[in-house]
Amino acid sequence: MSFKFLASTLALALASPAAADVLIDNVEGLTIGEDGKVKRFTALVIDDDGTIAQVLTAGDEAPQTDYREDGEGAVMIPGLIDAHAHVMGIGIGALTLDLSDTNSLEEALDKIRAFAAENEARPWILGRGWNQEKWGLGRFPTAAELDRAVADRPVYLQRVDGHAGWANTLAMEVAGIDARSKSPAGGRIERVAGSQVPSGVFVDAAEELMTRAIPAPRPNERDLALAEAQKVLHRNGITAAADMGTTIEDWQAYRRAGDKGALTLRIMAYAAGPDQMELIAGARPSPWLYDDKLRMNGIKIYLDGALGSRGAWLKQDYADDPGNTGLPLTGPAKLRNILVRAAQGNFQPAIHAIGTAANEDALNAVAEIAESFPGDRRWRIEHAQIVDPADLPKFAQNGVIASMQPVHQTSDRKMAEARLGPDRLDGAYAWNSILELGGRLAFGSDAPVESPDPFAGLAAAITRTDADGEPFGGWRPEERVNREQALAGFTSEAAFAGFAEGRFGRLLPGERADFVLIDRDPMLASPAELRETRVLETWVGGRKVYEAD
Amino acid sequence: MSFKFLASTLALALASPAAADVLIDNVEGLTIGEDGKVKRFTALVIDDDGTIAQVLTAGDEAPQTDYREDGEGAVMIPGLIDAHAHVMGIGIGALTLDLSDTNSLEEALDKIRAFAAENEARPWILGRGWNQEKWGLGRFPTAAELDRAVADRPVYLQRVDGHAGWANTLAMEVAGIDARSKSPAGGRIERVAGSQVPSGVFVDAAEELMTRAIPAPRPNERDLALAEAQKVLHRNGITAAADMGTTIEDWQAYRRAGDKGALTLRIMAYAAGPDQMELIAGARPSPWLYDDKLRMNGIKIYLDGALGSRGAWLKQDYADDPGNTGLPLTGPAKLRNILVRAAQGNFQPAIHAIGTAANEDALNAVAEIAESFPGDRRWRIEHAQIVDPADLPKFAQNGVIASMQPVHQTSDRKMAEARLGPDRLDGAYAWNSILELGGRLAFGSDAPVESPDPFAGLAAAITRTDADGEPFGGWRPEERVNREQALAGFTSEAAFAGFAEGRFGRLLPGERADFVLIDRDPMLASPAELRETRVLETWVGGRKVYEAD
Questions:
Q1: Minimal CA–CA distance to A449: which of A46, A84, A81?
Q2: Quick check: B223 and A282 CB within 8 A?
Q3: What are chain B's domains?
Q4: Does B218 touch chain A if contact means CB atoms closer than 8 Å?
Q5: Tens-digit pLDDT profile for residues A45-102
Q6: Which residues of B touch A282 (CB under 8 A)?
Q7: CA A182 – CA A188 distance, rounded (Å)
């Protein structure tokens, strides 16, 4: 959309106390309404404080405002909310050198050299995405080769699949790795042919020998990372995120941004464990800070691990690893202890549970504790990937919100089939069953584990197919949700899951004016078209925070 | 002062967005002016945002304001600023059981029992102030006696002099103390007569065996402690303090109070070391937060210890301990490293230096580093107690502010004489010399090490005598300062030392309306009268935060 007057751009950009109200018209607006149905509109009036004053439909008379802006027919939807992301991880990833587009070792070395020159202040050069097969190298690259690009600072670069890392000589020195270093169980230090001298590549568990030497990001790097994360998310149409596993270092970065008026993403924070929760928030959740930009809502609890590494806790053995059921990272007694401690302070627990046993224990723990802590608790299970069908009704029965990531289903389906076998997939990524049984779904991405793109998430949610349309007709298509449900999962329901309803998530009077202008209608576009949605502009609290070139 | 209208009380108490401007007249006002001289006035006009709009003198016509309040002839001075305090320590101390007024063991046990009943949520009962001599007991009390008051929670109570502690049986169990426990060097575990069984009292270094078992305060205790500290300080007429040694836990308590509008004390924070500095503030000092209520200014660095324990670092041996010169807690190289790191981020260093060698090294370190970091740095030395006269000119030469505590001089003079001998006191508590040589002084209390009462500080500053008027004529009276200098040290100069000039510290237009109404004129009262000053009301940012009964 173009501005009618330069003055209006300035007025909004400066966010002056005398900011004026504004009419944005000529849009094809849609939002989830209070009845859970899509509601359409043609114009918004935004108050000078960045909240929505009026939502107009065709035929309504536009009020007199200080400024008017022409939406030029773009589709306006609520700012998308990622109900499960790692904000700082997204930013740190974005600051990292990406080698995935390099086609030869020399091209990679040039790119590494240039990145190091552009980032002189960084004590380590970190990156990812290299692939010696794509380079046609026929072998792993070496530390000596990496030294040709950067020798005076440690460098560590992960392979595209994350299962190997490539270090330069200085990085190995700093990590204390030499010819005497032994490969750990489950890992391998690559050696120079015919010697014990490490050649520079560390496979699987041996990666830890290097990664433990990498210093934690400094505060100024975290500040940069947050700025990057905001850019990445706003570019994807995301205006708010639940931050899963917030540390005090993360929180301080959010506050620094808030204090200087640079926080443009709304962050619903879930602390990385009870000590961080207490250190950050004290005895109770924080208030909403910075005009609803930041709140410490609750606590993230890891009940089990992941399916890929067979760390998810199952009721029965892994189909591809008999005798192994995975295991709880947080045992039943400790889980209940943490839940009680959280509930006593009105903190909202968000329990990571992937496997059937983990989901059952989380659901049962909530049932046991909820009696002692009545009221509006909004217990959350994060992922809820593989649930015993017998346990599915407990989401609704126990008032547990399922916070799920549609793209995990399309990324992981083959792995899930391998881990569980064909007969134990009835409660896998069971979005529709949870809704049908009266439960509530919030949708997210788990970025940076997956791309934060919510349009990919919306498309996966309504199709159960991946970007290539595979498998045809969708994987266990009975668990698809409809378009309204999918959009609600990424807007109003994600807000509800973070105690933010009424503040943001819908385009209704009194809510913050968080919206996205896009180039197609998500209720009408084909799934393939939906994935190609172009975000034109992203607005948070009545201020434009992203505009496409 | 009484309010003319109840409505005005309500308007201010509610601090509503529609707060009005107010005239406070009929006061005998005084402030340090921009020329460093006392400036007198008769009325203030406070804007609706809590800043001073006008300062009126006799004959000025009062403007039209929404409210008018009659000062009833009280003396109005700027809110006093404590340039060196430990805010959380004051609060935690105030929450601790005080046994100093008990006259018998039974009276103490009754008081302990009652305190435990009133503080059911506290996991430990902590206190101080007992004195078996005053009780006429003729021996130390025992754990068994303490168990009669509280047996089901650990109890630990420090003796009045801090050199012994009294535990109950459960506290010793929790600390793992039993008949096999050995007394450490420099300490003694008292034993039941004729046995090795600990009797419950731990002397000097043995105290550590108990105190290490006491859990750190929980966030809700810190929140309570901050509220208490604010009460204690406002009751004493203090509206702002430099917090020396702020930890992340302290900072979070300050922010929680700020976030909910409960921060009434202005806190200029100096982090407890480089890691805390970086964790709290990131790469740069925080902005002024909550309408100038909170800022992370810089870093507290402990260069040496204290005179009493002979930990202060001297150029020559202790007169009462030949061969001992004390020692630096932070060596010269590390000091310079920290100063550079702080200066790179524009953090203000506040260097604790007590002894002659420590002060010389701090002054020299600043001289070496200041060349590389020009600009308005306001390097601070905290305490600056015993300075080699040859080094005194370096305060002014190197632009170092001396942040000193007048009451330390009156409390410590006999100890200083013992530690240094009569011939090495020329640069001891040398307030006037530092001023005469062109340096700047900020005054504080070091509370809770000393009482936070700034009127005791003002009286000590202008007399060099203690509350009993000892020694007659003052100790080294040539180092007295005049009344203007003393008041400036506790107001405008303390603000300058915290980069707060223009925000608070003076009663001038544009500054925050932080003031105290008192019952006598500090420029005219005798020193003894000055010590008896009664604080009638304390106001911060145009809001009353304390009123005497």
A1: A84
A2: yes
A3: 124-212 (3.10.310.70), 219-502 (3.20.20.140)
A4: yes
A5: 999 999 999 999 999 998 999 999 999 999 999 999 999 999 999 999 999 999 989 9
A6: 219-220, 222-223, 252-253, 256
A7: 8
